[in-house]
Amino acid sequence: MELSQIAPLVRYAKLHKQFLHVDHYVTCRDCRLFFFRHAEGHIRLDGRQYKIGDGTVVFLPPNTRYRFVMNPKNPGDAYVINFDITQENAHLSEKLLVATDDELPDIGPSITQAPPEYSRVSVRTTTLTADLLMRCIDEMMAKKPYYRELASSYIRAYLIELQRDVTTVKPRLAVQNAQGVIAKHFDDPTLSNESIAAMLGYHPYYLSKLFKDTLGLTLNQYLLRYRIQSAQFMLTHSGYDVETVAWKCGFNSSAYFIKRFREQVGMTPKRYALSHTVMGI
Protein backbone atom coordinates (compact mmCIF):
# COMPACT_ATOMS: atom_id res chain seq x y z
CA MET A 1 0.00 0.00 0.00
CA GLU A 2 1.37 3.42 -0.97
CA LEU A 3 1.80 5.91 1.86
CA SER A 4 -0.29 8.42 -0.09
CA GLN A 5 -3.26 6.05 0.21
CA ILE A 6 -3.23 6.03 4.01
CA ALA A 7 -6.07 8.33 5.05
CA PRO A 8 -7.54 7.03 8.33
CA LEU A 9 -11.14 7.54 9.39
CA VAL A 10 -11.34 7.64 13.19
CA ARG A 11 -14.72 6.31 14.30
CA TYR A 12 -14.29 6.26 18.07
CA ALA A 13 -11.67 7.36 20.58
CA LYS A 14 -11.92 7.41 24.35
CA LEU A 15 -10.01 6.83 27.56
CA HIS A 16 -11.43 3.84 29.47
CA LYS A 17 -10.62 4.07 33.19
CA GLN A 18 -10.06 0.77 35.04
CA PHE A 19 -10.21 -1.26 31.84
CA LEU A 20 -11.86 -4.58 32.72
CA HIS A 21 -11.93 -7.78 30.70
CA VAL A 22 -15.01 -9.64 29.51
CA ASP A 23 -15.60 -13.37 29.93
CA HIS A 24 -16.02 -14.15 26.22
CA TYR A 25 -14.35 -13.56 22.85
CA VAL A 26 -15.46 -10.77 20.53
CA THR A 27 -14.60 -9.92 16.92
CA CYS A 28 -13.86 -6.36 15.81
CA ARG A 29 -15.32 -5.10 12.56
CA ASP A 30 -12.87 -2.24 12.02
CA CYS A 31 -9.28 -1.56 13.16
CA ARG A 32 -8.68 -1.28 16.91
CA LEU A 33 -5.89 0.38 18.89
CA PHE A 34 -5.43 -0.06 22.63
CA PHE A 35 -2.81 1.77 24.66
CA PHE A 36 -2.53 0.60 28.28
CA ARG A 37 -1.28 2.56 31.28
CA HIS A 38 -0.40 0.96 34.63
CA ALA A 39 -2.09 -2.30 33.60
CA GLU A 40 -1.48 -6.02 34.07
CA GLY A 41 -3.03 -8.76 32.00
CA HIS A 42 -2.90 -10.35 28.58
CA ILE A 43 -4.78 -10.59 25.31
CA ARG A 44 -5.89 -13.95 23.89
CA LEU A 45 -6.09 -14.38 20.13
CA ASP A 46 -7.37 -17.86 19.18
CA GLY A 47 -4.57 -19.91 20.70
CA ARG A 48 -2.00 -17.12 21.02
CA GLN A 49 -1.48 -15.02 24.10
CA TYR A 50 0.41 -11.74 24.57
CA LYS A 51 1.29 -10.02 27.81
CA ILE A 52 -0.22 -6.61 28.56
CA GLY A 53 1.69 -4.17 30.78
CA ASP A 54 2.29 -0.48 31.31
CA GLY A 55 2.88 1.12 27.91
CA THR A 56 1.66 -1.80 25.80
CA VAL A 57 0.05 -0.87 22.47
CA VAL A 58 -2.18 -3.40 20.71
CA PHE A 59 -3.20 -3.06 17.06
CA LEU A 60 -5.98 -5.35 15.78
CA PRO A 61 -7.02 -5.49 12.10
CA PRO A 62 -10.67 -6.09 11.14
CA ASN A 63 -12.06 -9.58 11.74
CA THR A 64 -9.72 -10.24 14.69
CA ARG A 65 -11.23 -12.48 17.36
CA TYR A 66 -9.84 -11.49 20.74
CA ARG A 67 -10.36 -11.36 24.48
CA PHE A 68 -8.62 -9.22 27.09
CA VAL A 69 -7.99 -10.83 30.47
CA MET A 70 -6.87 -8.18 32.94
CA ASN A 71 -5.67 -8.51 36.51
CA PRO A 72 -8.70 -7.37 38.58
CA LYS A 73 -6.34 -5.90 41.17
CA ASN A 74 -4.54 -3.81 38.56
CA PRO A 75 -6.58 -3.49 35.34
CA GLY A 76 -5.13 -0.09 34.54
CA ASP A 77 -6.47 2.41 32.01
CA ALA A 78 -6.78 1.97 28.26
CA TYR A 79 -6.88 4.50 25.44
CA VAL A 80 -9.17 2.92 22.84
CA ILE A 81 -9.39 4.01 19.19
CA ASN A 82 -11.55 2.45 16.46
CA PHE A 83 -10.75 3.44 12.88
CA ASP A 84 -10.52 2.53 9.20
CA ILE A 85 -7.21 2.83 7.39
CA THR A 86 -8.78 4.70 4.45
CA GLN A 87 -11.86 6.86 3.88
CA GLU A 88 -13.42 4.22 1.65
CA ASN A 89 -16.18 3.44 4.15
CA ALA A 90 -16.75 6.94 5.51
CA HIS A 91 -20.43 6.66 4.59
CA LEU A 92 -20.97 3.75 7.00
CA SER A 93 -21.94 3.76 10.66
CA GLU A 94 -20.10 6.21 12.92
CA LYS A 95 -19.20 3.43 15.34
CA LEU A 96 -18.84 -0.25 14.43
CA LEU A 97 -19.41 -2.38 17.50
CA VAL A 98 -17.68 -5.67 18.20
CA ALA A 99 -19.66 -8.88 17.79
CA THR A 100 -19.70 -12.00 19.95
CA ASP A 101 -19.45 -15.46 18.44
CA ASP A 102 -23.23 -15.89 18.71
CA GLU A 103 -23.89 -12.59 16.95
CA LEU A 104 -21.50 -13.02 14.03
CA PRO A 105 -23.81 -15.14 11.83
CA ASP A 106 -26.50 -12.46 12.04
CA ILE A 107 -24.17 -9.49 11.59
CA GLY A 108 -22.16 -11.10 8.81
CA PRO A 109 -18.50 -10.52 7.93
CA SER A 110 -16.66 -7.30 8.59
CA ILE A 111 -17.73 -4.43 6.35
CA THR A 112 -14.22 -3.04 6.36
CA GLN A 113 -10.98 -4.69 5.28
CA ALA A 114 -7.34 -3.88 5.98
CA PRO A 115 -4.70 -4.04 3.23
CA PRO A 116 -2.02 -6.75 3.54
CA GLU A 117 0.42 -4.37 5.24
CA TYR A 118 -2.00 -4.03 8.16
CA SER A 119 -3.48 -7.51 8.33
CA ARG A 120 -1.35 -8.69 11.27
CA VAL A 121 -1.84 -8.16 14.99
CA SER A 122 0.82 -5.96 16.57
CA VAL A 123 1.63 -5.93 20.30
CA ARG A 124 4.50 -3.66 21.30
CA THR A 125 5.70 -0.90 23.61
CA THR A 126 6.80 2.49 22.29
CA THR A 127 6.63 5.98 23.77
CA LEU A 128 6.26 7.58 20.33
CA THR A 129 3.11 5.60 19.59
CA ALA A 130 1.72 6.41 23.02
CA ASP A 131 2.05 10.14 22.39
CA LEU A 132 0.30 9.87 19.02
CA LEU A 133 -2.59 7.88 20.42
CA MET A 134 -3.14 10.20 23.37
CA ARG A 135 -3.16 13.23 21.07
CA CYS A 136 -5.70 11.53 18.84
CA ILE A 137 -8.03 10.88 21.77
CA ASP A 138 -7.59 14.40 23.13
CA GLU A 139 -8.70 15.83 19.79
CA MET A 140 -11.69 13.50 19.52
CA MET A 141 -12.79 14.36 23.05
CA ALA A 142 -12.32 18.14 22.74
CA LYS A 143 -14.04 18.37 19.35
CA LYS A 144 -12.40 21.67 18.38
CA PRO A 145 -12.50 22.82 14.74
CA TYR A 146 -10.96 20.21 12.41
CA TYR A 147 -10.60 17.79 15.32
CA ARG A 148 -11.37 14.73 13.22
CA GLU A 149 -8.82 15.68 10.55
CA LEU A 150 -6.14 16.27 13.17
CA ALA A 151 -7.01 13.06 15.04
CA SER A 152 -6.78 11.13 11.79
CA SER A 153 -3.37 12.66 11.07
CA TYR A 154 -2.06 11.22 14.34
CA ILE A 155 -3.36 7.76 13.40
CA ARG A 156 -1.81 8.15 9.95
CA ALA A 157 1.56 8.84 11.60
CA TYR A 158 1.11 5.74 13.74
CA LEU A 159 0.28 3.58 10.69
CA ILE A 160 3.32 4.85 8.81
CA GLU A 161 5.51 4.07 11.81
CA LEU A 162 3.94 0.60 12.06
CA GLN A 163 4.52 -0.07 8.37
CA ARG A 164 8.15 1.03 8.64
CA ASP A 165 8.59 -1.17 11.70
CA VAL A 166 7.02 -4.18 10.01
CA THR A 167 8.98 -3.79 6.78
CA THR A 168 12.44 -3.13 8.25
CA VAL A 169 13.38 -3.78 11.85
CA LYS A 170 11.03 -6.59 12.84
CA PRO A 171 11.63 -8.83 9.80
CA ARG A 172 15.38 -8.74 10.32
CA LEU A 173 14.96 -9.39 14.02
CA ALA A 174 12.50 -12.22 13.37
CA VAL A 175 14.92 -13.88 10.93
CA GLN A 176 17.82 -13.48 13.36
CA ASN A 177 15.79 -14.95 16.22
CA ALA A 178 14.72 -17.89 14.06
CA GLN A 179 18.34 -18.48 13.05
CA GLY A 180 19.19 -18.62 16.75
CA VAL A 181 16.45 -21.18 17.37
CA ILE A 182 17.74 -23.33 14.49
CA ALA A 183 21.34 -23.12 15.71
CA LYS A 184 20.23 -24.29 19.15
CA HIS A 185 17.70 -26.96 18.17
CA PHE A 186 18.74 -28.20 14.71
CA ASP A 187 19.48 -31.65 16.18
CA ASP A 188 15.82 -32.05 17.16
CA PRO A 189 14.07 -34.07 14.42
CA THR A 190 10.71 -32.51 15.37
CA LEU A 191 11.95 -29.00 14.60
CA SER A 192 9.82 -27.60 11.77
CA ASN A 193 8.43 -24.38 10.33
CA GLU A 194 5.47 -24.69 12.68
CA SER A 195 7.47 -25.29 15.85
CA ILE A 196 10.00 -22.53 15.09
CA ALA A 197 7.23 -20.04 14.34
CA ALA A 198 5.35 -21.07 17.49
CA MET A 199 8.43 -20.41 19.65
CA LEU A 200 8.68 -16.88 18.25
CA GLY A 201 4.97 -16.06 18.04
CA TYR A 202 4.69 -15.87 14.24
CA HIS A 203 2.58 -17.61 11.63
CA PRO A 204 4.72 -20.25 9.81
CA TYR A 205 3.89 -18.88 6.37
CA TYR A 206 4.75 -15.32 7.41
CA LEU A 207 8.08 -16.36 8.96
CA SER A 208 9.00 -18.44 5.92
CA LYS A 209 8.23 -15.47 3.65
CA LEU A 210 10.50 -13.25 5.76
CA PHE A 211 13.32 -15.77 5.23
CA LYS A 212 12.68 -15.83 1.49
CA ASP A 213 12.64 -12.04 1.25
CA THR A 214 15.72 -11.61 3.46
CA LEU A 215 17.96 -14.58 2.61
CA GLY A 216 16.55 -15.94 -0.63
CA LEU A 217 15.67 -19.23 1.08
CA THR A 218 12.45 -20.39 2.68
CA LEU A 219 12.56 -21.27 6.36
CA ASN A 220 12.52 -25.01 5.55
CA GLN A 221 15.32 -24.60 2.99
CA TYR A 222 17.43 -22.69 5.50
CA LEU A 223 16.88 -25.37 8.17
CA LEU A 224 17.90 -28.10 5.74
CA ARG A 225 20.98 -26.18 4.63
CA TYR A 226 22.02 -25.57 8.24
CA ARG A 227 21.67 -29.27 9.03
CA ILE A 228 23.67 -30.30 5.96
CA GLN A 229 26.45 -27.80 6.70
CA SER A 230 26.59 -29.06 10.29
CA ALA A 231 26.79 -32.61 8.94
CA GLN A 232 29.68 -31.63 6.65
CA PHE A 233 31.61 -30.33 9.63
CA MET A 234 30.90 -33.45 11.71
CA LEU A 235 31.87 -35.80 8.87
CA THR A 236 35.33 -34.23 8.64
CA HIS A 237 36.02 -33.30 12.26
CA SER A 238 34.21 -35.65 14.62
CA GLY A 239 34.97 -39.20 13.53
CA TYR A 240 31.27 -40.12 13.73
CA ASP A 241 29.86 -42.55 11.21
CA VAL A 242 27.14 -41.52 8.76
CA GLU A 243 24.26 -42.85 10.84
CA THR A 244 25.42 -40.98 13.96
CA VAL A 245 25.91 -37.74 12.04
CA ALA A 246 22.41 -38.06 10.60
CA TRP A 247 20.94 -38.50 14.08
CA LYS A 248 22.96 -35.63 15.56
CA CYS A 249 21.83 -33.29 12.77
CA GLY A 250 18.12 -33.90 13.23
CA PHE A 251 17.40 -36.48 10.54
CA ASN A 252 15.01 -39.31 11.40
CA SER A 253 16.71 -41.83 9.10
CA SER A 254 20.13 -42.20 7.54
CA ALA A 255 18.52 -42.99 4.15
CA TYR A 256 16.72 -39.64 4.10
CA PHE A 257 19.88 -37.90 5.30
CA ILE A 258 21.94 -39.47 2.50
CA LYS A 259 19.35 -38.44 -0.11
CA ARG A 260 19.23 -34.84 1.07
CA PHE A 261 23.01 -34.63 1.49
CA ARG A 262 23.58 -35.82 -2.07
CA GLU A 263 21.09 -33.25 -3.38
CA GLN A 264 22.84 -30.41 -1.54
CA VAL A 265 26.51 -31.42 -1.84
CA GLY A 266 26.60 -33.54 -5.00
CA MET A 267 27.95 -36.71 -3.37
CA THR A 268 27.07 -39.12 -0.56
CA PRO A 269 28.13 -38.34 3.02
CA LYS A 270 30.55 -41.28 3.04
CA ARG A 271 32.24 -40.16 -0.16
CA TYR A 272 32.41 -36.60 1.15
CA ALA A 273 34.10 -37.74 4.36
CA LEU A 274 36.59 -39.93 2.48
CA SER A 275 37.46 -37.30 -0.12
CA HIS A 276 38.11 -34.64 2.48
CA THR A 277 40.17 -37.00 4.62
CA VAL A 278 42.34 -37.91 1.61
CA MET A 279 42.80 -34.23 0.82
CA GLY A 280 43.90 -33.62 4.37
CA ILE A 281 40.98 -31.30 5.21
Report the structural category.
alpha+beta
- Report low-confidence residues grouped into runs of 5 or more: none
| Strand ordering within the main sheet | 1-8-3-6-10
The main β sheet shows up as:
5 strands, antiparallel
In angstroms, what is the radius of gyration? 25 Å
Number of strands: 10
Mean pLDDT: 84
Helix/strand order, N-terminal first: EEEEEEEEEHEHHHHHHHH
Helix content: 40-55%
Strand content: 15-25%
User: How far apart are the termini?
Assistant: 52 Å
Number of helices: 9
Approximate shape = elongated
Structure overview:
- By secondary structure, this protein is α+β, with helices and mostly antiparallel strands.
- The termini are far apart.
- α3 packs across α5 (204-215), α4 packs across α5 and α6 crosses α9 (269-278).
- Helices cover 45% and strands 19% of the residues.
- The strands form two sheets. A five-stranded antiparallel sheet has the order 1-8-3-6-10, covered by helices on one side. A five-stranded antiparallel sheet has the order 5-4-7-2-9, with no helix packed on it.
- The longest helix is centred in the middle third of the chain and has 39 residues, at 147-185.
- β4 and β5 form a beta hairpin.
- It has helices spanning 104-107, 127-142, 147-185, 193-200, 204-215, 219-237, 242-248, 254-265, 269-278; strands at 9-16, 26-27, 31-37, 41-45, 48-52, 56-60, 65-70, 77-84, 99-100, 122-125.
- The mean pLDDT is 84.
